[in-house]
Amino acid sequence: MDPEVQNFINSSGFKVLALARLNSTEYSVVFYLLNTAFSGLNQIVSTETELASLLGHSEDEIAEALVSLGTRHVIRLKYSDKAPNTSHLSLRIGLQYETSRWILSYKEDATSSDAIVFPFRRQGIKNLKLLDGEKKPESLESDSTWKRIVDSFMQGRHAEDNEMEPAIEAAKVLIETHPVDQVLIMLRHFKLRVPTLSLLASNWQHYQELFEIETQKVDLMEARQKHQEIDQIVREHAQHCLDLSEDNELKDEEINVLNILIKHRHPRRQLFWAYQARNRYPNLDSFFSDNASLMLRVTTSGSVVKSSE
User: Fold this and answer.
1) Are the beta carbons of 264 and 232 closer than 8 angstroms?
2) What element of type H or E holds 47?
3) Average pLDDT, rounded, for the chain
4) What does the alpha-carbon distance between residue 143 and residue 246 come to, in Å, rounded to a whole number?
5) Are 121 and 142 in contact (CB under 8 A)?
6) 289 pLDDT more than 60
7) DSSP structure class, residue 130
8) CATH code given to domain 3-112
9) Higher-confidence residue: 233 or 224?
């Protein structure tokens, strides 16, 4: 796909288009140009007569729509010089993919961020209210919560400075509209397939349905075997650390933690809880550092919220 078209999609261009308040003829022109763009043609050469025939509008309506769209920089339009004995001018036309250049009636400096439509806040059924796109949402979680979202999103990618502020704002909205653990699961599952956090927030239902389809394909027996193998690795690492307890000068409490991991039915879950209190076990820093990637994150009820890699 052409980079300009991909950027238009990633920057919520369709959301801007939905709020652009175009008339039916103007929308017909824009969607026709989008269709040609997805076919690999960013610009086409035609005439007003041909466009009127293709789109089912009169020539006057098409001419008026082209002038309006061109004036508002929604399209890139250039007419040819009039040739002798020719009543219909040919024209070159294409969509302007940089929506920041569009001049729209509802806001002079509209951007793709202004057009993102977010779902309801998580404040209980009786207190549902829509987020105001002009105001920053009041935080329902601590700062560390949205930072977890941003940190998870940034793993394996590099963002420019001007991309961080929109990512932070979208992360704050995500923690207000969805359970934090669920957002983290989605980010870990899709990884680089989520180009922006704002796209995840505004297309949550799409990603949720795709997540359900993809996770249903998991071979449960194979997954269980893999979990058991990694559980055993954690036990072996804990045993090795315990064997070196004198050399590492382990305290009684630190030895007790290792024994629990060795004997527990779910050592990777227990490793998660031990990791939360790792400041109490300074002599196990190396053990936690080496095995942190193996632990299973769980909720307070014990439910796993992170699948194994």
Assistant:
1) no
2) strand 43-47
3) 78
4) 41
5) no
6) yes
7) B
8) 1.10.10.10
9) 233
- Beta-carbon contacts of residue 181 (< 8 Å; ≥ 6 apart): 297, 299, 305
Local structure of 121: helix, strand or coil? coil
Are the C-beta atoms of 183 and 208 separated by less than 8 Å? no
CB 121 within 8 A of CB 177: yes
**79-112 residue pLDDT tens:** 876 554 555 678 889 988 888 788 876 544 545 4
| Residue 20, token pair as written in the block | 């652009």
pLDDT in tens, 34-89: 888 888 888 888 888 888 888 889 989 999 999 988 888 889 888 876 554 555 67
Domain boundaries, the chain: 3-112, 116-215, 220-294
Do the beta carbons of residue 210 and residue 23 sit within 8 Å?
no
CB 116 within 8 A of CB 202: yes
CA dist., res. 261 & res. 274, Å (int): 9
Q: Are residues 237 and 291 in contact, defined by beta-carbon separation less than 8 angstroms?
A: yes
Q: How far apart are CA 18 and CA 31, in angstroms?
A: 11
The helix or strand, by DSSP H or E, that contains position 76, with its residue range, turns out to be strand 75-79
- pTM of the entire structure? 0.38
User: Would you say how long the chain is, in residues?
Assistant: 309
Q: Which pair of tokens denotes residue 135?
A: 């105001």
3-state secondary structure 78-91: EECCCCCCCCCCEE
Instruction: Tell which residue, 198, 188, 112, has the closest CA to residue 151.
Output: 188
Percent residues over pLDDT 70 in the chain: 78
Amino acid residing at 200 = L
Cα-only R_g, the chain: 28
Q: At 70, which amino acid appears?
A: G
- Residue 187: CA count within 13 A, CB half-sphere: 26
Q: Which of 33, 34, 29, 38 is nearest to 2 (CA)?
A: 38
Helices within 12-160 (DSSP H only): 13-18, 24-38, 48-55, 59-71, 143-154
